[in-house]
Design brief:
Oligomer: single chain
Distance between the termini: 49 Å
Family: Belongs to the iron/ascorbate-dependent oxidoreductase family.
Largest sheet: 8 strands, mixed
Structural class: alpha+beta
Number of helices: 12
Pfam families: 2OG-FeII_Oxy, DIOX_N
Organism: Escallonia herrerae
Radius of gyration: 23 Å
Helix content: 25-40%
Domain Fe2OG dioxygenase: 201-407
InterPro entries: DIOX_N (IPR026992), IPNS-like_FE2OG_OXY (IPR044861), IPNS-like_sf (IPR027443), Oxoglu/Fe-dep_dioxygenase_dom (IPR005123)
Number of strands: 19
Bound molecules: 2-oxoglutaric acid, fe (ii) ion
Strand order of the largest sheet: 1-2-10-7-17-5-4-3
Length: 457
C-alpha cells in the first residue's frame, strides 16, 4: 500500500484514472468541474504567494532587433547579465507567422478529445508529436494545470505523419524561422562576450531543437496550483512565443517578475551558454571548457570570460591556497600556474567559481574581486534563470510555444590539446565525451570525488 493510500487518498490511482482518459486538463474544464482534482494541489512552497511582492524596479528588457548591431549586442549583454530574460521586437518575422503558430496549438487543443487522444503518450521513441498533461505527471509531487504537445525537430526531424494536421505546417514553418533567429541571437550573445559570432554555432548549439506547445486553459482554483512549476530550461537557448494571456514570471532573488505579453514579441529566457573560446581553443581542461556564464548575477559575463581566460593563459600571477570546504570540488587546476577553479554544489546547479591569490607579502587578498558564479554546461540541463507560469484564472486560454536549442554533438572527445603536450608536460587528463562529464556531474556517481580527479591520469 502506498503512503498516499494510507492517508486515505490513493494519489497514483487518481492520476492514472485521469491520465487513462487522455482528455488533458482541457477535458476536465470541458466537463464542467468547479474544483480541481487533489493531485493538482501544490504544497504551499510552490504555490504563488497570495499577495505578490511588487518590485517596480524590476522589468524585463525589450530589445529592438532593428537597432544598430552594437547597441543590440550591448543591450542583450546587459539583459543577460542582469535579469537573464528579455523580449524581442522588430525581429523581422511577420505577425501572421507568430499568429498561425499560436493558432495552430490552440486549434489542436480545442478539437474534440477523440481527435487528440491518439497523440496522447509520453514515448519519445515514436518520433512524432507527443501530447500529454505534464510529461512528469507520475514523477512530480504535484501536477500543473497545463497540456503540452511536444516534438523533437532536430537533429532528427520529426515523423511529420505523426504530427497533428492542424499543427504540421505551422510547426515546420516556425522551425525554419526560429533557426534563423537562433543563429542571430547566438551570434549576438557570442559577440557580447567578446567572442567570434560563430562560436556557439560551431559548437553545434543550433542543431538540437525541441518544440513544445503549451495550452493553459481556465483553472477554477488557480490559487491551489500552477500552470508550470518553477524550473530552469534545458539547453543553450530558448525562444518562446506567448499569446496575450499573461502568467509567465521570472524569479529575481526572492521575487517574481511578470513577463507581460507584448504583441508579437518573442521572449528569450537566457540560458547559460558555453565559453566556446575555451572549448575550442584552450581545451586543456575538460571541465573548464564546459563552464559557462550564469546570467543571474549582475556581474558582467565579459569579466567572467576575461578572468577565466586569464587563468588559462596564465596571465594572473596567482598562487591559490587550498579552499577548504567539504562541499567544494576542484573542477580544474593549473598547478603550474597555481590556479584552481572550484565548483561548489551548494547551489545544486549553480557553480560558484572562487579564486584566491596571494599578494607578494603572502597575505590572502579578499576574494571579492575575483569571485563570480558560472554554470556548467550540462546534458540537456543547462541551468539558467528560474521561471514559472501561474495557473490561468481567465476564460481565455493561455498558449505558448517554446523551442529549446541544444548542442547536438555530445560524443566528441574533450581533453588536453595534443599541441600542448610535451614529454616534460604529459597529459594531465584523459579524454572524455561531454555526455560522460554531464552524466557524472549530475548524478550521484561522483560521490564527492572531484571531476578532475576522475579524469586525471
Ligand atoms: O508557457 C510559457 O510561457 C513558459 C513555458 C516554459 O517555461 C517551458 O516550456 O519551459
Ligand atoms: Fe521554461
Amino acid at each position: 500500500m502506498t503512503a498516499a493510500a494510507t492517508q486515505d487518498y490513493d494519489r497514483l490511482k487518481d492520476i492514472k484514472q485521469f491520465d487513462d482518459q487522455k482528455i488533458g486538463v482541457k477535458g476536465l474544464v470541458d466537463s464542467g468541474i468547479n474544483t480541481i482534482p487533489r493531485f493538482f494541489h501544490h504544497p504551499p512552497e510552490t504555490r504563488p504567494a497570495p499577495t505578490p511582492t511588487s518590485r517596480p524596479d524590476l522589468t524585463i528588457s525589450t530589445i529592438d532587433l532593428s537597432a544598430p548591431r552594437a547597441a543590440v549586442i550591448r543591450e542583450i549583454h546587459h539583459a543577460s547579465s542582469t535579469l537573464g530574460f528579455f523580449q524581442i521586437i522588430n525581429h523581422n518575422f511577420p505577425q501572421s507567422l507568430l499568429h498561425s503558430l499560436i493558432a495552430s496549438i490552440k486549434s489542436f487543443n480545442e478539437q474534440p478529445a477523440e481527435l487528440k487522444s491518439p497523440y496522447y503518450h509520453r514515448d519519445p521513441s515514436r518520433g512524432g508529436a507527443a501530447f500529454s498533461t505534464n510529461f512528469d505527471l507520475y514523477q512530480s509531487k504535484a501536477a500543473s494545470w497545463r497540456d503540452t504537445l511536444q516534438m523533437r525537430l532536430a537533429p532528427t526531424p520529426p515523423n511529420w505523419d505523426f504530427v497533428p494536421d492542424v499543427c504540421r505546417e505551422a510547426a515546420a514553418e516556425w522551425d525554419t524561422a526560429v533557426l534563423t533567429l537562433g543563429e542571430e541571437l547566438m551570434g549576438l550573445l557570442s559577440e557580447g562576450l567578446g567572442l567570434e559570432s560563430g562560436k556557439l554555432k560551431d559548437l553545434t548549439c543550433l542543431e538540437g531543437r525541441v518544440f513544445v506547445g503549451h495550452y493553459y486553459p481556465y483553472c477554477p482554483e488557480p490559487d491551489l496550483t500552477v500552470g508550470i512549476t518553477s524550473h530552469t530550461d534545458p539547453g543553450v537557448l530558448t525562444v518562446l512565443v506567448q499569446n496575450e494571456v499573461g502568467g509567465l514570471q521570472v524569479k529575481c532573488g526572492e521575487d517574481w517578475v511578470d513577463v507581460d505579453p507584448i504583441p508579437g514579441a518573442l521572449v528569450r529566457p537566457f540560458t547559460a551558454f558555453a565559453l566556446s573560446e575555451m572549448h575550442v581553443e584552450e581545451h586543456q581542461f575538460g571541465s573548464l571548457s564546459m563552464c559557462h556564464v550564469s546570467p543571474l548575477e549582475s556581474r558582467g559575463s565579459q569579466d567572467v570570460v576575461k578572468v577565466l581566460l586569464d587563468i588559462l593563459h596564465g596571465a594572473l600571477p596567482s598562487t591559490l591556497p587550498e579552499f577548504n570546504s567539504d562541499t567544494t570540488r576542484v573542477a580544474a587546476e593549473r598547478p603550474d600556474l597555481g590556479s584552481r577553479v572550484y565548483l561548489s554544489p551548494e547551489f545544486n546547479v549553480y557553480i560558484e567559481l572562487q579564486m584566491w591569490w596571494l599578494n607578494s607579502d603572502g597575505d590572502e587578498r579578499p576574494p571579492s574581486s575575483a569571485r563570480m558564479d558560472v554554470d556548467i554546461m550540462s546534458n540537456d540541463e543547462y541551468k539558467s534563470v528560474e521561471h514559472r507560469v501561474l495557473a490561468n484564472p481567465c476564460p481565455n486560454s493561455r498558449v505558448s510555444v517554446a523551442v529549446f536549442f541544444n548542442p547536438s554533438n555530445r560524443e566528441d572527445l574533450y581533453g588536453p590539446f595534443p599541441e600542448l603536450l610535451t614529454p616534460e608536460k604529459p597529459a594531465a587528463y584523459r579524454q572524455f565525451p561531454l555526455s560522460d562529464f554531464m552524466r557524472r556531474f549530475f548524478t550521484k556517481e561522483l560521490d564527492g570525488k572531484s571531476l578532475t580527479n576522475y579524469y586525471s591520469l
